[in-house]
Amino acid sequence: MRIILLLLISGWLTLGAQARWDGTLLPDEQLTVARAIAIAISQNPALNQYREEIRSQRGERWRGVGLPSPDLLILQEGIPREGSGFGERRWGISQSLDFPLKSYFRMRRMTAEVGAMEQSLEMQAIELTARVKKVYTELAHAAKLQELRQDELNIARELHHSVSARVEAGEASELDLMQADIQLAEAQNDLDGARRIYHQNRYQLFNLIGLPLSRQKYTLQFPDTLGYFPVEIDQHRALERLPELPVSRSAAVRQSAARWGVREAWSGFLPDLRLSYYRQDFGSGYDFYGVEAGIKLPLWFWFNQNGDIQAAKAQRRAAGHERRAIESDLKRQIEDAWHGFEQSRAVIQRYQQTIRRQSEQLLTLTMEGYRLGELDLLKLLESQRTFLTSQERYYVALRDYYIQLIELEKFLDHEIVFRQ
User: Fold this and answer.
1) Distance (Å, rounded) from C-alpha 234 to C-alpha 248?
2) Phi first, then psi: what are they for 73, rounded to 5°?
3) pTM reported for the whole predicted model
4) Homologous superfamily, domain 2-67+99-142+167-172+208-270+302-409
């Protein structure tokens, strides 16, 4: 997981080791999770925009040296009111300089800010990867739901056939046949609804990863599916890794940048420097030269430096509050994901150990009992509803199981679901 993410956050990951996705990533019309992630990392507008912001900030960092353009000076004085001539003529060059310590503090602050943005980019890549996996999970769940609704339709048809046979034999009433007709129509409606949900999830995935319209085909297949596999999650290990997460490191670096900002503000009391060099002509040619050195005194510190210092201190305190808030929220996310994972796993295990076998057996026995005339239609419908509801709950729990594991992946150093 860590190696994959390091490749992903570089922004140029593709399955063919290309610089960026060129539209040939789906030659076999198979959109796997790995391919979806590769396309998303390359094509996602927000991620690409943030990469450009980092490049811009890197360029801005060089301005922190505090070295403005020099001034070229030309002077001629002592000119008579009438006539020509001059008393002195000179040209020179003048350069202003920030005090070196001020430039040092500024560069450290700006470097830390770039580092914080790079850590934030890594976390955005992790978040995008998780979002792609979650949407793919929803799509795989929708495919399972389609299968379930098709099973429901098949059961309804079998029920309709049994009821029709009993009505013809005079063993059931027309009311039972009407109920079977309604059940069959509702099953068809449920199947149509499941297909609609499936296609909605397809396009949600396409939009998330930025798949071009020309590649959004009905022939596109999604081979990665859902299936239960037991896994143990060390909650304490996830909590211990909180300081190692990119979002935590980004907050820590931003706090460090704010501390450098305070030092930069205090360095405003240090005098800026000004150096000048002249060549002078007093009428016989540029035979003389002069030098000039000066400093800028912070006499109005109460209006300038004092305000900068107060603002920098406030930013430092805000960065500290933000870091604590982020760490607290990350802990909450881990706790929520872990408890959701535990609950989903318990539902799946109960279904596999007890509910699936008994619900299948109950449906088989009640259908046989109805054909033999030992049970009425209501009992059969109830057992059918129990069977279908238990299956639907299982698939919902399986979907939630995957989603919670995907959420936990963000805090661990390895992949759990859809491993490549």
Assistant:
1) 20
2) -115, 140
3) 0.79
4) Outer membrane efflux proteins (OEP) (1.20.1600.10)
Cα angle 179-162-187, degrees, rounded to a multiple of 5: 50
Q: What pLDDT, on the 0 to 100 scale, is given for residue 122? A: 93
Q: Cα–Cα distance between 94 and 224 in angstroms, integer?
A: 68
Q: What secondary structure letter does DSSP report for 297? A: -
Instruction: List own/partner pairs for 5-9 with CB under 8 A and 24 or more apart.
Output: 5/122, 5/125, 5/126, 5/129, 8/37, 8/38, 8/41, 8/125, 8/129, 9/41, 9/121, 9/122, 9/125, 9/126
H/E element holding 294?
A: strand 288-296
Residues 6+ apart with CB under 8 A from 390: 351, 355, 356, 359
Reported as a single tens digit per residue, the pLDDT across 351-370 is: 988 888 888 888 888 888 87
Q: What is the residue extent of each domain of the chain?
A: 2-67+99-142+167-172+208-270+302-409
DSSP secondary structure of 120-171: HHHHHHHHHHHHHHHHHHHHHHHHHHHHHHHHHHHHHHHHHHHHHHHHHTTS
